[in-house]
Amino acid sequence: MDIVVQKYGGSSLADIPKIKYVSAKIKRHVSEGKKLVVIVSAMGKTTDQLELLCKEVSECPVPREKDMLFTTGEQVSAALMAMALNNIGVKALSQNAFQTEIITSSDHTRASIRKINAGKLKGNLKDYDVVIVTGFQGITESGDVTTLGRGGSDTSAVAIAAALGAPCEIYSDFPGIFTTDPKLFPAAKILEQVSYAEMLEMAQLGAGILHPRAVEIAKKYNVKLCCRGTFSNDNGSRVVSDNIEQPVVTGLSVMENQAQVTITGLPEDHIIVNGIFNYLGEKQFNIDMISAVRLGNNNMTLSFTIVENDKNCLLEVIQDLQKEFCACNIT
After folding, report:
1. Among the residues of 107-256, which ranges form H helices?
2. Among residues 127, 152, 172, which one ends one of the domains?
3. % pLDDT > 90, the chain
4. Nearest to 38 by CA among 130, 175, 166, 174
């Protein structure tokens, strides 16, 4: 079987006309003799709306229940896409993470994929031209629903492609990977190709076209990866193992939705600093942009950034940090 994995983001599926457009695009690929596994995100701003519902109930909801709520968005997209495809004569089947058997860790809201039942997907592709899988989610060994964190549908797509030994195409509003955000700088140019290392650096620094975890998986398993525009017929941008004609500067990235945490009155002791980051790592906080400034008298200030949505949950562990390591101030 000639299998291709495709992923469509929320903006590509924001309403019914767009879902019908994407279904017609998928049908053209099927007519070329391909079998498709299509990973879908929630429609439009659905996840943001669910986040607001969470905050109306609790500032820091129980992570397991948050996952139960958030996984509903992708199931809507998958079911509607399957309906649209079957309506135009394409045999399609929608599946959630449980039905696909995407097994993850038990770290709710930021789980990592452990294994995928590729044989089950291939078996379904014998009976159907397209299998639509809910992105962004998985299940634990005990059957609890989990989510992979923001951008998790990219991770789902690349992980499934790796399991199937298939190429992966990421579709979004952008017709490829730009040198910088074209919304901020309209003169930005599309890169024909970019190396895994360059793409990983750009993604970690805020380029929204691909999630860093997806790039890491693609590099590890040598997945053929291409970023294309949903509403464009251009070739897009390929992510390759090496870029021989590598420019000095590939692109610029912008990080948004970040919160800065500053710890003052901290003893200048690397054991304490390491302990703080190990503790936060165990709590599954994604730490970035670390800055340490020596103040003299054996004191220092430590700053780092976290995702804005994790800010309220961090407040819950601050007291534990202070008790565990030092009587410092955290803002």
Report:
1. 118-127, 152-164, 196-204, 212-221
2. 172
3. 54
4. 130
Domain count of the fold of the chain = 2
Q: In the chain, which residues have pLDDT < 70? A: 204-208, 242-256, 322-331
pLDDT score for 248: 46
C-alpha 22/C-alpha 81 separation (Å) is 8
Measured distance CA(278)–CA(211) in Å, rounded: 23
Give the pLDDT of residue 249: 45
The residue range of the domain holding 124 is: 3-172
Do the domain assignments include residue 317? yes
Amino acid of residue 99: Q
179 inside domain: no
Exposure pattern of 92-113 as b/e (b: 16+ CB <10 Å)? bbbbbbebbbbbbbebbbbbbb
Question: Which residues does 142 contact at the CB level (< 8 Å), separation at least 6?
Answer: 106
At residue 286, what are phi and psi to the nearest 5 degrees? -90, 105
Q: What is the Cα Rg of the chain in Å?
A: 21
pLDDT tens digits, one per residue of 289-307: 787 777 777 788 888 887 7
In angstroms, the CA 213 to CA 104 distance is 14
Considering the domain architecture, whether residues 143 and 49 belong to the same structural domain is answered as yes
